[in-house]
Amino acid sequence: MQQKSSPQLTRILSYGFSDKALILPIFDAARTVEAAHRSLTRNLIPYCTADCHLTQKFPSNSLHGVHVFLDMSNIEISFQKALKKRYGLADAARFSPLPRLNLHFLTELLVRGRPSRGLHVGCSILPGRKEPRYVQDLRDLGYQVDVRERKRVENNGHNVHQSKSSFVFASKSVSRYVEDLVDETLQTRIAEAVMEHFQEQGTIVLATGDAKPAQYSDGFFRYVERALRMGWNVELVAWQGSLSSSWKDVEWTATWGERFRVIELDSFIYDLLEVQS
User: CDD domains, per this entry (predicted)?
Assistant: First the structure.
């Protein structure tokens, strides 16, 4: 009987700790971009099957396509946390360089071959810095990109509202940088889509785990709830570790039945990790 050969391993990531100069490798199965895409396609089969069922149940919503809204900070930072969990790393570990999320594959996962009526993403950058490469990558994929500068606040700035403490970007001692109006801007895009297509309700695909109110709005959860009341279907796409309990509330989800569903990204994590060249 022929033994099944073990997969070839390759270094896919490296990490270290801030107090040490040592950089350690992480190994996993070697793959090509084509192999990663085949894996993604295979893993999407159950979701595409569910899409066919929902097309029969909600033909009007399916006809009017999907409107995608991507909370980049939430998805990207939660991606790094999910990778640490997958490879058993401590929270204090720091990837070097940072792992890259395959935005083309992520978009394919969000859209899944359905008619796309709009791709929107909210991002933030440090003041005075050039836009990171992924911003242009998102534009090339067809996203409307809203980029906002992070706001500098002093460490003792008690008057600063922090809806997402994990998204605070700190300098060494004096000040830190927090996201400013990123969530609110993306929520405005959701409201615009709902109003502009109020007679053509489709499906909102929202990629975030966040449900808390923002500084100047009542949060993604309330925007989704309003859209559902107006006849939209909603898909919430998130990493398990950042998925707010509000999205899993049994009584609330039962209210909407199959018109609301949650898709967790964790089973796609290796598919979505960009293959190093």
Answer: PIN_LabA-like (cd18724)
Query: In this predicted structure, what is the pLDDT of residue 4?
Result: 56
Which pLDDT does position 242 carry in this prediction? 96
What does the alpha-carbon distance between residue 168 and residue 187 come to, in Å, rounded to a whole number? 20
How do beta strands 175-178 and 203-207 pair? unpaired
Q: What is the value of pTM for the model shown?
A: 0.88
Number of H helices, E strands in the chain: 9, 12
Residue 245 burial class via C-beta count within 10 angstroms: exposed 0-12, middle 13-18, buried 19 and up: exposed
pLDDT single digits (tens) 127-137:
878 888 999 99
d(CA 98, CA 86): 15
Among 202, 229, 222, which residue's Cα sits nearest to residue 54? 202
The distance of Cα 229 from the centroid of its chain, to the nearest Å, equals: 24
Which 8-state DSSP code applies to residue 217? B
Matching residue, tokens 């002093």: 154
Q: Where are the beta strands (DSSP E) in the chain?
A: 9-16, 24-29, 66-71, 94-95, 116-125, 144-149, 151-154, 169-170, 175-178, 203-207, 233-238, 260-264
Pair 174, 94: CB distance under 8 Å: no
Taking Cα atoms as reference points, which of 118, 190, 181 lies closest to residue 149?
181
Task: Decide if 100 contacts 75 (C-beta within 8 A).
Answer: no
